[in-house]
Specification:
The protein is mostly beta strands. It is 9% helix and 39% strand. A seven-stranded antiparallel β-sheet has the order 1-2-3-5-6-7-4, covered by helices on one side.
């Protein structure tokens, strides 16, 4: 997993499950844009986000990646949002709880109002655990 310099912090909402800074049940993730035109974040999933003991629920992994890659449009148009058309998830490894994880997403194509993007959640050792591709409408 390549490291890159942060160029801008994206906005957070109050009650969003993923980025809501006032949502006690949520993940309160902060998203950043990088010099590589990616959106990246670090987060710690807690016990209340589990599926099997010690593992992050797969639906929450998908939700994190949906939010992350939907935000990738902001690397080109900072005041725009991507609305999910479709999302394909591949689960490669179990995602542990209570450790810092990293996720990154990027645009693969953007034509008219349709954005194609991808992203990954990485384990602490840099191994991709969950991979997503999707299409989003501006």
């Amino acid at each position: 997993m390549e490291k890159s310099k942060v160029t801008r912090k994206q906005i957070n909402s109050n009650m969003c499950f993923i980025c809501g800074i006032k949502n006690p049940a949520g993940l309160q993730i902060r998203f950043y844009e990088t010099e590589n035109n990616e959106v990246a974040c670090r987060f710690i999933a807690r016990d209340e986000h589990q599926s099997y003991p010690g593992r992050l629920h797969g639906g929450i992994s998908a939700t994190i990646l949906d939010e992350l890659i939907g935000r990738s449009i902001q690397t080109l148009e900072p005041d725009s949002w991507g609305v999910t058309c479709d999302l394909d998830i591949k689960y490669k490894k179990p995602v542990p709880l209570n450790v810092e994880l990293t996720a990154k997403g990027r645009i693969k194509g953007f034509r008219h109002r349709l954005l194609e993007a991808e992203g990954e959640i990485y384990l602490p050792d840099g191994t991709p655990a969950v991979i997503a591709t999707g299409r989003y409408m501006k």
